[in-house]
Amino acid sequence: MKITITALKADVGSIGGHLTPGSELFNTIKEFVSENGKNLIIDHYISFTGDDIAILMTHTRGVSNPEIHKLGWDAFKAGTEVAKKLGLYGAGQDLLVDAFSGNVKGLGPAVAEMEFEERPNEPFIFFAADKTDPGAFNLPFYLAFADPMYCSGLLLAPHMTKGFKFTIIDVNYTERDRVIELNAPEDLYSIAALLRDTERFVIESIHSRATGEQAVAISTTRLHNIAGKYTGKDDPIAIVRVQGAFPATGEVLAPFEIGPFVAGFMRGSHNGPLMPCKLQTTISYFDGPPVITGAAFSMNQGKLTGPVDVFDHPFWDFVREKIAEKAISIRRQGFAGPSMLPYSELEYGGIVKILEELDKKFYLR
Ligand code: F6R
Ligand code: MG
Ligand code: MG
């Protein structure tokens, strides 16, 4: 049976700053989807990560389906109304246009979607990150799908030794989608050369070369490309099918132990370590640290069982402590050098004015 998983995520308001949406807004969106999705979707899962709410839906209508996208959009709209009523901060922040036009892509919310022939047992993980951008997935998924140091299946599982195909998108190119397809292992250095630049080249999808099946779908929205100005970081989501021809769940999770430095954190303008957190984690220290949550499901004919909270385990408590140290360590550097993003990636324009004023005061000696 062909099933589509559609995941949408948006910040439509939060309590006490950009911290967390709160139960009233959350329940509004949850009830809207279950009420209005009755004849449209098979199952759904609503969650929040930091200040963003994610709507995950299973159905049989394929990717980019207007009715499915409208359901998600209308749910975020209904949430926005409640957020306004409650005086939540940044109400409707990620809904960048007034009218829905057939597809949520390009309108603000993050979108990750995948249609596939469901396996007899279908496990997958839904990742959601806050205070960072889609480039945050570059290193973890490179390691999970192309490096036998992290993914033992590349050596041990016969159907994985052929490797994986990476589709990488140039997120700075706004006219159309500019993409490249590269194969691991033979294109490893080319893949790494692109993924090094997390603000420009981002993994969009990964496919098994043995079966042709899609394993990964990542949202690749660039809010500042849509709005032309800062409206929030592009807090990304990813759907990752696991086991069998794909890496095992634990192989996909393994690289998150690194807590890689990612763009985001305070004002979307800093580098900070990506902390794997429990589901429904809020935001705190320096509007961060950048957080990632993972919900693992089993699926049968689109019906979901789960989630299991993949980072809710004593192992990750230890990792979180180490990553907190990493966060404090880079924060000690304040604005200097790599702790703040380069000029082109700063999400606030204030510094431009300062530099323009100073430019006039420079003189030649
Ligand atoms: C980052 C983020 C926050 C805000 C910061 C200032 O993605 O959402 O760090 O940038 O709290 O917010 P404003 O400009 O809304 O006062
Ligand atoms: Mg926000
Ligand atoms: Mg957010």
* Percent in strands: 25-35%
Which sequence of SSEs, written as H and E, runs from N to C? EHEEHEEHHEEHEEHEHEEEEEHH
Q: Major beta sheet, specifics?
A: 9 strands, mixed
Shape: globular
Short recap of the structure:
With 365 residues, the chain is an alpha+beta fold.
What does this structure look like?
The protein is of the alpha+beta class and 365 residues long. It has 2 domains: 1-117, Alpha-Beta Plaits (2-Layer Sandwich); 123-355, no CATH class. It is built from 9 helices and 15 strands. The chain has helices spanning 23-36, 66-86, 138-146, 153-156, 188-195, 223-227, 249-253, 314-331, 350-361, and strands at 2-10, 43-49, 52-59, 110-117, 122-130, 164-170, 179-183, 201-208, 214-218, 237-241, 261-264, 270-273, 275-276, 291-300, 303-309. The strands form 3 sheets. Strands 5, 6, 7, 8, 9, 10, 13, 14 and 15 form a 9-stranded mixed β-sheet that branches. It has a 4-stranded antiparallel β-sheet with strand order 2-3-1-4, with helices on one face. Strands 11-12 form a two-stranded antiparallel sheet. Strand 6 (164-170) and strand 7 (179-183) form a beta hairpin. Helix 1 (23-36) packs antiparallel against helix 2 and helix 3 (138-146) packs antiparallel against helix 5. The relative contact order is 0.15. The structure holds fructose -6-phosphate (F6R) and magnesium ion (MG) (2 copies). One magnesium ion binds next to loops.
